[in-house]
Amino acid sequence: MTNCKILHLLSGAEEARGLTVIIDVFRAFSLECYLYDLGAALVRPAGSIEEAKALHEKIPGSLLIGERHGIKVEGFDFGNSPSQVEAEKEKIEGKVIIHTTSAGTQGIVNASGATEILTGSLVNARAVAEYIRSRALETQDQVGSQKDLEVSLVAMGLSAKREAAEDELCAEYIKSLVEENKIPPAFEERRQDLKNHDGKRFFDSDLQEHFPEKDYYMCIRQDLFPFVLRIGKDDLGFFSEKTNIEKCFSKGI
């Protein structure tokens, strides 16, 4: 059904082909799921800070959200923090969000060889897997059972330069759900152990302004949202489109 491979970092995004999932658990694509759940009208991923600011000028009332090295970009409305935007839901509802990050959005703009792009995180991983499985069935119906759907799962890592345990785990989880419809071995232990890897920063008392502890728990929640975010492109650039997955589960399970 699928030819599913895991790729890594910025080079992985550049190598990606077929249906491509750009994965950033801490925190870009967890945040984008929460933004839509909070009522954002549209999220527009941007590669550079300059591009994000230019889009903001073109879209009256839009909000700027983003980081570099985890720190909120100067002059932006929010950093890359789901707990901080959740605390100010009234500012998010109905708004166009322009979002730029060190890893996740860089993957989107560099995945030029992909035929279709989704974002991926633990909070909607099962929905992503269900979407891939349904697309694989569509491919078989269209071209016959000999044709596999090419799938690239890109774990973006820390600043798209170093592999990160949370993104690798998410990629393995999606792959296992797609290929075997089961959770990979030791998944829960590894998920809980993320606090001992790049998750450590969320527990540093000196970094709470930029890496709130609540962000960690919001980002490691598993299968919270029954929707995927598909990337489209128009005259203004990239945007994500929320697509509900009928075969998914009730939120919170």
Structure description:
The protein is an alpha/beta fold and 253 residues long. Helices cover 36% and strands 24% of the residues. It has helices at residues 9-15, 28-37, 49-58, 82-86, 89-92, 104-110, 125-143, 165-180, 187-192, 213-220; strands at residues 2-8, 18-23, 42-45, 63-68, 71-72, 96-100, 114-120, 149-155, 227-234, 237-244. It has a four-stranded parallel sheet. A four-stranded mixed sheet has the order 3-6-4-5, with helices on both faces. Helix 1 (9-15) packs parallel to helix 6 (104-110) and helix 7 crosses helix 8. The longest helix is centred in the middle third of the chain and has 19 residues, at 125-143. The chain is globular.
Q: From the helix content, strand content and strand pairing, which structural class follows? A: alpha/beta
Percent range for β-strand residues = 15-25%
Sheet having the most strands: 4 strands, parallel
Whole-number radius of gyration?
17 Å
Order of SSEs: EHEHEHEEHHEHEHEHHHEE
End-to-end span in angstroms?
A: 27 Å
Note poorly predicted spans.
249-253
Average pLDDT number:
95
Topology:
Layout: E1 2-8, H1 9-15, E2 18-23, H2 28-37, E3 42-45, H3 49-58, E4 63-68, E5 71-72, H4 82-86, H5 89-92, E6 96-100, H6 104-110, E7 114-120, H7 125-143, E8 149-155, H8 165-180, H9 187-192, H10 213-220, E9 227-234, E10 237-244
Parallel strand pairs: 1-8, 2-7, 2-8, 3-6, 4-6
Antiparallel strand pairs: 4-5, 9-10
Helix pairs in contact: 1-6, 7-8
